[in-house]
Structures are given as C-alpha cells and as structure tokens.
Design a protein that fits this description.
By secondary structure, the chain is mainly beta. The protein has five helices and 19 strands.
Length: 394
C-alpha cells in the first residue's frame, strides 16, 4: 500500500464528488448578504473580545467522539511510501472553530521525520443523519490541498485560522458511524470516484476507540478489481504517541512552535549576527514576504528593533532552529497594516523561520584618514529586514 493511498486521514480529499447545479441550490442575494453579515459580526466579536471563537459540539455523543479522536498518534509500524522505503507517520487532531461548519476537528498527517509540512490536512465535521453520526471530511481548495497557515495548529488550536471556513473547503468523503462510549466504527456508504494509481473509485473504513484508530482505503479499477489498499479485514493502525514539537505561548496570542532539528552553538547574544530564511503568511494563506523569493537570507544583529512579537519570541534564536512564529496584530503592524506589503489592518502574521547561522559581531571599523571609494551595502542587512520596505519585522 502506497503512502498517498494510506487512509481517509491521509488521503481524505484526493477525489471530489461531481457537482450538480440546480436552481434551488443557487443562493439568493439575500442569503449571500446575510451570510456576509454573520461572518462580519463574528469577526467583530472576535476583535472586541480579543479571543478567537471556541469550538462547540451539538450533543454529548458527538463531543465524546471528538474527544476520543483528539490527540497525537502514530502508525503502529512503518508503512511503504512512494519512494519505496517504509516510513512512520504521525497525526495530530484537535477541536477547532471553522467558520460555516459545526462540530469540527482539524486533522494533520506528517512523516515522522518531516513534521513541518504535512502530507495531508483535513477538516472533520460531524452531523446527525437518521439518528446516526455522519463524519464528513473536507479538504482545502489549495494546491495539493495544503494550507500553510494551519500547519501544526493541532498543537495550538486556539490559534487555528478559523476564517478559512466552509467557502475555502470542499467535501470529499462521508462515513456513517455506529457505536457509543469509547468505540465507534463505520464506512463510506458507497464508493467515491477517484483517479489514484489506476483506480476509478474507492471505499474507506474506520474504527475508532480509546486505544487508537484502524483505517483502510481501497481502490478499484473499471472491472471492479481492487488495485490498491489493504485486503478485506486488514487495516492500518494508529496508536497514541508524543509528537516532538515544542509550543510556547506568550501574551495575548503570541505563539512559537519549534520543530526538532540539529542545533549548533549557543543562543545568539546581543549584537551577534543572525542569518535566517523565512516565509511570512496572512491567515488567509497569502504569502506576503519571503527571503527565498528575494534569493538571499536576512541578516540582522540580535537585539535589533524588529517587529515587537519577533523580538519577544525570538530571544533564544539559535543556529539550526526551525520555528513557526505567530504574531497577532498588536505585535505586528496593528490597526494600520502595511499597504505596500499588502498587509491589511489588524492582520495576524505567521512566519516559518529557518535559522541559518549565528556569528560574532563584525569588528568595529576605524575611522579612515583618507577618502575611500563608497562601499555597497550588502544585501540582507537590517535595513532589508522583514517589515522595512516590504522586507523584515521592524
């Protein structure tokens, strides 16, 4: 079984059911205005309270199921990958608020050795259908179904980008679940169309308990022959695990998530030269700044005046560090935003940072007694830092 057809929690959303447009399904102008007003009302309440909306569940059974599924998990044994070598997968699940949906969990699956960028991101939503609990999986309408602002936010669900709601998602699979207490199981009520690895349709099964998950996706060709996935009665199992990311929460929503990496030397001291690569996102997924796009990293003296949140949460910066930094508006560009960088007012900024090196401060320059040619300022000095002229966090 290949990695890209592992389970609903890995694959969820690789296929999209056909869309049927009927006159009765086209929203009226009134409905669209009401929806926009409700969305703005929620955003205004969040701004007033300073707190994101909290996830809620409509009944005790759904809440219990969400609690069973939430947590950190890993495959009980390595699974084959497209590259051939078996890999271990890890999965983080947490209750989150998603605008326009109810009873929602965020699920993210990664290779255990590559925790920064997931293989699959899925929103799970629960509803009652005929008295049973139906779980519907949703995927982001993005390239490869990946939405960078949500990476690793199972570890800090209060910072989940909830505004990327139902309009940013597409439903993919549905499961009718039976059970209660600490055990549920179910399967897709019918085959769903797919185009994965020679299959034209697929089915999926899932079993959920306090001890873990068992999942199985199976693909079938035009003749009805199974062409991938575990044989009948066989499943891929996920068990409880600790995913080694370190979360530090600061005041008023400030957040860092630090990933496992090989650190070098000591944390940077004042005025030492810190060199980083970074990408900055808005919560809607827009990329607003990137050292990779500029084709040179950013270098600044430790302690330089950058964005307030950057200064507060990067005091322990160290060579080799891999970190995600979440800056709420008051610690970034606040109510003004930054027009030339397309950063709107009251925007939260999300930085993915790779610390390239920490080096000694440059030697002090002596005053030259004779005129000398003007020297070009090297790229990546603090004036080019993120936030100045569309670059670094000032």
């Amino acid at each position: 079984m290949k990695l890209n057809v592992l389970s609903l929690l890995v694959v969820a959303g690789m296929t999209v059911p056909a869309l049927a447009f009927q006159a009765s399904q086209v929203p009226s102008t009134n409905e669209m205005v009401k929806k926009e007003m409700a969305s703005q009302d929620l955003a205004d309440r969040v701004k007033t309270t300073g707190k994101p909306p909290e996830p809620t569940f409509s009944d005790a059974d759904i809440k219990n199921l969400a609690t069973l599924m939430s947590g950190q998990w890993k495959t009980s044994q390595a699974v084959p990958s497209d590259g051939g070598s078996p890999v271990e997968l890890v999965m983080g699940i947490a209750p989150v608020a998603v605008e326009g949906l109810s009873n929602t969990l965020y699920c993210e699956v990664c290779r255990a050795d590559q925790l920064r960028v997931p293989i699959r991101q899925t929103i799970l939503s629960f509803t009652r259908v005929g008295g049973k609990i139906r779980m519907t999986t949703f995927e982001y309408r993005r390239s490869h179904g990946l939405f960078p602002p949500a990476y690793t936010m199972w570890a800090a669900p209060e910072s989940f980008p909830w505004r990327a709601g139902a309009d940013d998602l597409v439903a993919t699979l549905a499961f009718d679940l039976n059970g209660s207490g600490d055990s549920y199981m179910g399967k897709t009520p019918h085959a769903y169309p797919t185009g994965i690895s020679g299959a034209i349709e697929m089915t999926s099964e899932i079993s959920i308990s306090k001890n873990g998950f068992e999942v199985a996706d199976r693909g079938f060709d035009a003749s009805g022959k199974q062409v991938w996935g575990p044989q009948a009665g066989q499943f891929t199992k996920f068990v409880h695990a600790e995913i080694p990311v370190r979360v530090v929460k600061g005041e008023d929503g400030l957040l860092t998530i630090t990933y496992p990496s090989k650190l070098q030397g000591e944390p940077a001291k004042k005025d030492e030269q810190v060199t980083v690569n970074y990408v900055a996102y808005l919560e809607n997924g827009s990329e607003v700044d990137s050292s990779y796009e500029k084709q040179h990293p950013l270098t600044f003296p430790q302690g330089a005046k950058l964005l307030p949140g950057w200064n507060m949460m990067m005091e322990d910066v160290q060579a080799g560090m891999l970190r995600r930094l979440v800056l709420p508006p008051k610690f970034a560009y606040g109510e003004q935003g930054r027009r030339r960088d397309h950063i709107p007012p009251d925007a939260t900024l999300i930085y993915d940072i790779d610390v390239v090196s920490v080096q000694a401060p440059p030697a002090p320059q002596t005053k030259e007694m004779t005129p000398s040619p003007m020297k070009e300022v090297p790229a990546g000095t603090p004036k080019d830092a993120p936030g100045d002229g569309g670059h670094a966090p000032h």
